[in-house]
Design a protein that fits this description.
heterodimer; A: 1058 residues; mainly beta; B: 496 residues; mainly alpha; two-stranded antiparallel ribbon; 6% strand
């Protein structure tokens, strides 16, 4: 019996061993990110030649010889997982996304690469990083995402795009905007047309090695947006919804109230009479200002109320401010609740909704991604809305081994209402930000009885808006009424198509032809009401049509070859690009029937106009990539562009790059086991920049359509420069990518030098050589300058805590760069431009201003430094100072708007099912020229609001202060442009906080869902800067404006996957 | 087989693609602009280049309202004088000019406008003068096109030399700096010439223009015919104290033009078909300059922020000098209460004493109206003044009488002589040309101080500028800072 048992045992053992030797392991590989199966995962049995791949549904099967066999599962973008088989026959594997990103797949010009064998510099933001942020424009995800990227949001209107700058400022007068490429082709359209939920990744190409293949357009870097595609395997349905509350993100400047304002204006008036040419004795001037003396020295005078027009107090016009300059203690406001224009302008819908539905999947021979989305954003400002409807179909098909094809078609329709806030209307009477900021605090929004303060009601018992015929600040207008009663709407349709056909000719050799098409049509309608404003007295209607049509057609050959450890990839081809812009406008005035704003309902034609503009580029391009065993990396690219914007003699040029890399950690001699990856790389190349020059910048032109009555007429429009060509940037980049301690710490350090030559200056011609009736003196675009941007970028990510339930990782991005002009036009060593000047040795954003010296304690005059000892000047210590602004000389102040350091901090916490992301952006150093503050420190413009700092003004001889005397006659001298308005630009902004909760799986089963999460997210939650109200982060050149201040959005959202 | 098939397709596709870019693929041109070679290929096109200048005279200029072509200059010249009165500071349009601040502030738009506006005209005229001879077309056309361009150039330099230069004083060297004399298309900086040099060129150009334009019958009054050229020459001579020429040319210039009737005088000054008007722009509805329009500032009935809150008045002292039977007395309302004859744009608009109804738009829905640049009345006044200043009192009184009796049937031939006669002529001139842009030039030309006292000017709104001595440095406009910058100092600034 014992033997029998023994025998049986042996038999079973032997059988078992025999079985083990022939064992087949099966299983499914899925992604931790989304739980989806991953096809084409490489599986090898370590130490053998046995290998396989997962099928489209993620399943695999492989034979192993013994229980000690080790399987290795690897897939690009995921961490390789190594599993000892043991006695199992089914092994399901969940691959983790590769957090150190060394093996990330990067989207680059004309292809994709693995980050580890890539020689260029790029930053890629994947969908996962912004999927939980309810953004309307995908560019809003870029701010702070990587070093070397600066983003500024001048406007917070729904759907607006931030400006992006990559590695400094390469141009003074041409464009500094990066080139946008969507799904492989240069994109002509509004980025806000693209639903962020459709975007798989955004790549920022920063150096020559990555961007040189965009030739004459890549000089400012490239932003590549790649949309999602379906994954073969399980079909997936995703539904996302979010709702949010919108409010103003940047607070207003601090300004004096009505009780403070009236005495300040009284003092202004008194000083104007005392110190001005009238030289009225102070006591008389006091009495005139109060309104008690109306005749003096045979001249007629009137009190301060006549200057301000309004008396908002319950006392007589000549009893508001006493002769001692203080407010009558009995004065109280008649309509104190109706003085806040900003609040009454901020009565928009203040909410945001977003819904999207996507369905994707695929099989062996095809994959597809489809989506529909709807976004409705209502800004905090009255009449600022965006409604967007979008859909996308992305289908790829592989019908035979030698042919595959696909297309990606996106359609978009949006309607928007927009207020009169943009760069062209910074000081427009209808710009609610301008009006509410500078309206004196004594002027009501609505019409009130001057004596009782009661609202004056119209025939239907409704309050009326006050047009302020007596108000010295924008008299006869009411921005709130006008915005409510005017209409400004846009309807935009866009269609973007990308299609390709690939022929696999030989193993490794394929030919692809691509056709890309972008179409955008914007119909704008405007209507100015007949009662108040530009439309009065009869009403005006305008319509505009802007249509952009562009296509790119390319034919590419792609050859990949592996010879031993030598890996080659070569591409070459031809591409042509064509862009067309059509403009059509018509306007009429004299409204006939109320309520209809079609042009036909207006009596008189005011204007009709149309034109078409064309631009074309013809190109030949090629690239070689080579690596030896993934250790030594080389790349080279060459593109030849012919560009229609330039003259026949100079329109063709070559753009190229060379790159090299070395994965040191792959060397046998490198035996530092705590280093996962260490790569040294560098690149150099030449790119061009043709942006921002218009379409025909080299041609001398006469402008048609300047008819004299019915006789045809044209006028001089532009002078010629047939030698004008693109700006050329020579980009050098070197960096180290590293990952240590099993990915606990990773990052990169880079140095770049972008040297731009042939910098285009719009050389300002003497006024006396003529010009155009609308723009004034001629400018001739000429390639004459040089500058460089040199800097260092650092990006470090640390997995600070990594336990079973709790993880915390943090990324710090820092950039420091120097921008310096190295060559200026002959004969023009210094060109002044607003608050800046260009000259060798200075950055393009170095301030060049008159220098404010201080305030004369004797009389409150503003003093400025000068080189000229005129009659108005005197010497104080080492300085010659003048009281006349025009006599003060301009000088470099030693300040720049370029920060010493800028960067971002991204924090990510996760605890069980909760994740929390916190993003900050910041900059230190640099200055803002705070012109809005300057305008609030005007020092004596009747009717215009004042900063609280005006309370520190000089009042009596002996006063020590830096705020000059209030004096209406001296506004240009006392409040003119000078160093006085330079303010520290250092800021720290809390960009986004997102808290996400993944619902437990057990809950999901009840509704048949696979996964679901809910989140709460806040954008633009707080900013700390030197001065309240100042938009330190809203421009690159250190200017501020009366912009649609950016919005704070608090959102609640949910995502469900089926 | 498949491979061969695919290669065939491929070869075909690539062949098509590579040949698709034609040689002219990269040659693009705008659709709303033409090359200068086209602009001067024929005299037909040359006429279009000239009509472009006519249009500049009533275009929105450089993005600053109140600068609607030449009418902007007209506004500024009266605002700087003493005959136009601001009743309130409610509208800031032109207010700081009224205070005599902006023309002495180098970055100000008034300086840029006055300098660049005339140089844009000169630049376009120089292109015509340089290129028209080579165009295809009749010599008669070339002669007239060139003649008008020369007249424009003379006029534009004349406008500028009065502002940016010192006053011309006959019998002295007049060697102070005026403006750069740019006489052909140029891209290099030209230094300022002296007042004397600029006047010499102005006279050369206007004489050539008169020669070229003699016998030319124009299509309408926006074109410069020989009368306009002669009128310009009369103005130039008057400013140069060249009395004989001024009187003679004034007389020649008005040949064929008759003074308007009293009914026409009260008709709103908006129609260039008026038989007294010699030179004017006609503005069509689809060429409106919107709020840049002269009428947006000066009219009694077109509704704008300025006309609603700050309608302008006449100097009450001047008003009181007008005879009660003079038709011109009806242009202003001393009471501020005459609602029947003095319209205001809206019921909420402000009304003041001495407001004007001289300028009115024909259609209150549109800001347009024709703007007069030269009227026969002015030429009578030039003739009278030139004769009076040269001592020919009888001739002066006779010239004045023709105009004055037309305006006031009770007017009797003046028995004044010498200074009294000159003063009478000047009062007539102030009243007749009120609002038409002459006053600053006249004060400077005649070396008379600004005196706003003793009238309805409110010192609270003038920043204390009630009088400016004739010798004051402020009579000279400063050169705009941009010109100093853009010429790298080749153009130098006036004394500040």
């Amino acid at each position: 019996m014992q033997k029998l048992l023994q025998s049986l045992f042996i038999l079973i053992f032997i059988a078992g061993s025999a079985l083990a030797q022939e064992r087949t392991i099966t299983g499914t590989v899925i992604s931790k990110d989304d739980g989806q199966p991953i096809p084409s995962v490489g599986i090898i049995v370590n130490g053998t030649k046995s290998s396989t791949q997962t099928a489209v549904n993620g399943t695999y099967s492989i034979k192993v010889s013994n229980t000690n066999a080790v399987l290795s599962f690897s897939y690009v973008g995921y961490k390789t997982q190594v599993i000892t088989v043991g006695t199992r026959t089914t092994i399901n594997v969940t691959l983790l996304g590769d957090e150190n990103q060394l093996n990330e797949v990067l989207v680059v010009a004309y292809g994709k690469v693995n980050k580890s064998t890539f020689t260029g510099s790029t930053a890629q933001i994947n969908n996962a990083e912004f999927a939980k942020r309810p953004i309307t424009n995908v560019l809003n995800a870029i701010a702070g995402s990587a070093p070397g990227i600066q983003a500024s949001s001048a406007s917070g209107a729904p759907g607006t795009s931030p400006s992006i700058r990559i590695r400094g400022f390469g141009s003074i007068n041409a464009s500094n905007d990066a080139l946008f490429v969507v799904d492989g082709a240069v994109y002509n359209g509004d980025i806000s047309n693209i639903d962020p939920d459709d975007v798989a990744s955004v790549s920022l190409l920063k150096d020559a090695s990555t961007a040189a293949l965009y030739g004459s357009r890549g000089g400012n870097g490239v932003v590549m947006i790649t949309t999602k595609k379906g994954r073969s395997g399980k079909d997936a349905l995703q539904f996302k919804a979010s709702v949010g509350l919108v409010s103003r993100g940047l607070p207003e400047y601090e300004r004096v109230n009505a009780q403070q304002y009236y005495p300040l204006m009284w003092e202004t008036y008194r000083n104007t009479m005392q110190y001005g040419s009238l030289k009225i004795p102070r006591d008389v001037a006091n009495s005139i200002a109060s309104g008690l003396t109306t005749s003096y020295g045979n001249n007629t005078y009137s009190g301060i109320k006549s200057q301000l027009g309004y008396n908002p107090f319950n006392v007589a016009d000549n009893a508001i401010v006493g002769t001692d300059g203080t407010l009558n203690p009995n004065a109280s406001l008649l309509y104190g609740d109706d003085l806040d224009w900003a609040d009454q302008a901020a009565q928009g819908g203040k909410k945001r909704q977003n819904y999207s539905l996507s369905y994707s999947g695929g099989g062996e021979k095809n994959d597809y991604f489809t989506s529909v989305g709807y976004t409705n954003e209502e800004g905090y400002l009255i009449k600022s809305t965006l409604k967007r409807y979008n859909g996308r179909i992305n289908v790829n098909s592989r019908p035979t081994k030698w042919f595959n094809t696909g297309f990606n078609l996106a359609g978009n329709y949006s309607t928007s209402q927009f207020a009169n806030v943009d760069a062209d209307s910074q000081t427009a009477s209808i710009n609610p930000f301008f009006i509410s900021r500078f309206m004196g605090p004594i002027y009501p929004v609505h019409l009130h009885d001057a004596t009782t303060g009661a609202l004056v009601l119209d025939g239907t018992g409704q309050p009326q808006y006050d047009i302020g015929a007596l108000r010295p600040f924008v008299s006869g207008r009411n921005a709130i009424f006008e915005n409510l009663n005017d209409t400004q709407t846009a309807a935009k349709g866009a269609l973007n198509g990308r299609g390709y056909a690939t022929f696999n000719i030989l193993p490794g050799l394929k030919a692809t032809t691509n056709i890309s098409f972008d179409f955008q049509d914007i119909q704008e309608r405007m209507y100015d009401n007949p009662l108040v404003g530009d439309g009065s007295p009869s009403g005006r209607a305008y319509q505009y049509s802007y249509r952009t049509t562009s296509y790119t057609f390319s034919q590419m050959l792609d050859y990949t070859k592996k010879i031993g450890k030598h890996n080659f990839n070569i591409i070459g081809g031809h591409e042509n690009y064509s862009y067309k812009y059509n403009y059509l406008t018509g306007s009429r005035s004299g409204q006939i029937v109320d309520g209809i704003t079609e042009l036909v309902n207006f009596a008189t034609i005011l204007n009709t106009n149309s034109y078409e503009r064309n631009a074309t580029i013809d190109s030949y391009l090629s690239r070689l990539s080579y690596d030896f065993d993934g250790k030594y990396l080389l790349s080279a690219s060459l593109r030849r562009d012919g560009n229609s914007k330039f003259g026949p003699e100079v329109r063709w040029a070559n753009f190229w790059s060379l790159g090299a890399g070395w994965n040191i950690n792959k060397e046998s001699f490198f035996k530092v086991d705590w280093v996962d990856q260490l790569k040294l790389r560098g690149s150099y190349g030449v790119l061009g920049n043709d942006g921002g020059l218009g379409y025909y910048p080299y041609q001398a032109l006469y402008n048609l359509g300047r008819n004299n009555q019915n006789e045809a007429g044209f006028v001089q429009g532009a002078l010629e420069n047939s030698n004008l060509t693109w700006e050329t940037s020579k980009n050098f980049d070197t960096g180290i990518d590293f990952s240590v301690l099993k990915g606990r710490l990773s990052g990169s350090v880079e140095y770049f030098n972008r040297a731009t030559s042939g910098l285009i200056f719009a050389v300002q011609q003497p006024l006396s050589n003529g010009g155009t009736y609308n723009n004034g003196n001629f400018e001739i675009n000429t390639n004459i300058g040089s500058l460089y941007n040199r800097g260092v970028e650092l990006s470090v990510t640390g997995q600070v805590v990594k336990s079973k339930d709790f993880t915390y990782s943090a990324t710090l991005n820092l950039t420091r760069f120097k921008n310096q002009i190295t060559k200026m036009p002959v004969g023009q060593p210094l060109i002044q431009d607003g608050t800046k000047a260009y000259s060798v040795g200075h950055s393009i954003y170095d301030f060049y201003l008159r220098e404010f010296y201080g305030v004369d304690p004797d009389n409150g005059n503003a003093l400025y430094k000068t080189n000229n000892l005129s009659a108005n000047a005197r010497v104080i210590g080492q300085d010659t100072v003048t009281t006349v602004l025009a006599e003060a000389n301009y000088r470099y102040t030693g300040d720049s708007s370029i920060p010493d350091l800028y960067g971002s901090m991204l924090h990510s916490f996760s605890y069980k099912n909760f994740t929390l992301g916190v993003n900050f952006t910041f900059q230190t150093g640099g200055k803002v020229y705070d012109s809005a503050y300057a305008s609030l420190m005007h020092g004596g413009t009747y009717g215009t609001a004042m900063s609280v700092d005006a309370l520190n003004r000089w009042q009596n001889p002996g006063d020590i202060t830096d705020v000059p005397r209030l004096d209406n006659g001296q506004v240009p001298n006392f409040a003119g442009g000078s160093t006085r308005w330079l303010t520290s630009a250092t800021y720290f902004q809390l960009n986004n906080v997102t808290l996400n909760y993944n619902l437990p799986k057990t809950w999901m089963e009840s509704i048949g869902a696979e996964r679901a999460s809910i989140y709460v997210s806040g954008d633009n939650l707080a900013i700390a800067a030197k001065r309240k109200g100042m938009g330190a982060s809203t421009s690159f050149n250190g200017t501020v404006g009366n912009n649609y201040n950016f919005s704070r959005i608090i959102s609640l959202g949910a995502t469900v996957n089926f | 087989m498949k491979k061969i098939f695919s290669k065939v397709i491929l070869a075909f596709a690539f062949a098509v693609a590579f040949t698709s870019c034609k040689k002219d693929y990269l040659d693009t041109t705008p659709t709303e602009q033409v090359a200068p070679s086209t602009a001067f290929s024929t005299t037909t096109n040359g006429w279009a280049a000239l009509n472009g200048i006519h249009r500049i005279m009533y275009s929105q200029i450089f993005g600053v309202q109140a600068q609607g072509g030449q009418s902007g200059n007209m506004l500024y010249m009266d605002v700087l004088g003493e005959d136009m009165v601001f009743n309130t500071s409610a509208s800031t349009w032109l207010l700081s000019d009224y205070k005599w601040i902006q023309h002495r502030n180098t970055p100000s738009s008034i300086l840029y406008y006055h300098y660049q506006f005339y140089y844009v005209i000169i630049g376009n005229a120089n292109m015509i003068i340089a290129n028209i001879d080579a165009a295809t077309g009749s010599d008669a056309d070339k002669k007239v096109i060139k003649g008008q361009a020369l007249a424009y150039r003379a006029w534009a330099y004349y406008q500028m030399v009065q502002l940016f230069g010192e006053r011309y004083i006959a019998g002295t060297p007049n060697s102070s700096l005026a403006v750069p004399l740019v006489l052909q298309p140029s891209t290099t900086a030209t230094p300022r010439s002296t007042v004397a040099e600029v006047y010499a060129q102005i006279n050369a150009d206007i004489d050539q223009a008169i020669a070229n334009l003699t016998g030319y019958g124009r299509a309408n009054k926006s074109h410069l015919n020989v009368n306009v050229a002669q009128g310009i020459k009369a103005r130039i001579a008057l400013t140069q104290q060249n009395w004989a020429v001024a009187a003679q040319l004034a007389k020649e210039a008005r040949a064929g033009f008759t003074l308007m009737t009293n009914a026409q005088y009260l008709g709103g000054f908006n129609d260039y078909m008026n038989n007294e008007w010699i030179w004017a722009s006609r503005i069509q509805a689809d060429q409106t300059s919107f709020f840049y329009s002269f009428f947006a500032y000066m009219s009694a009935n077109y509704s704008t922020g300025v006309t609603r809150s700050s309608p302008k008045s006449i100097n009450s002292a001047l008003y009181n000098k007008i005879s009660a039977t003079d038709v011109r007395k009806k242009l202003w309302d001393p009471t501020g209460k005459n609602t029947a004859e003095f319209p205001i744009p809206t019921s909420g608009s402000s009304r003041f004493t001495y407001i004007s109804n001289k300028f009115r738009v024909a259609d209150v829905n549109l800001s347009i109206g024709d703007v007069p640049y030269m009227r026969a009345a002015e030429l009578y006044l030039i003739e009278a003044e030139a004769l009076a200043r040269s001592g020919n009192d009888a001739g002066a009184a006779a010239a004045l009488y023709t105009l004055a009796v037309n305006r006031d049937t009770k007017y009797v031939l003046s028995s004044n002589t010498g200074t009294a006669l000159i003063d009478e002529i000047m009062v007539q001139r102030r009243v007749e040309l009120w609002g038409e842009g002459f006053r600053f030039y006249d004060l400077k030309r005649t070396n008379v101080a600004l005196d706003r006292t003793g009238a309805n000017h409110n010192a609270s709104f003038t920043n204390g500028v009630l009088s400016v001595p004739a010798s004051d440095i402020r009579w000279q406009f400063l050169i705009p800072q941009d010109e100093i910058n853009n010429t790298n100092g080749v153009v130098v600034q006036n004394p500040q």
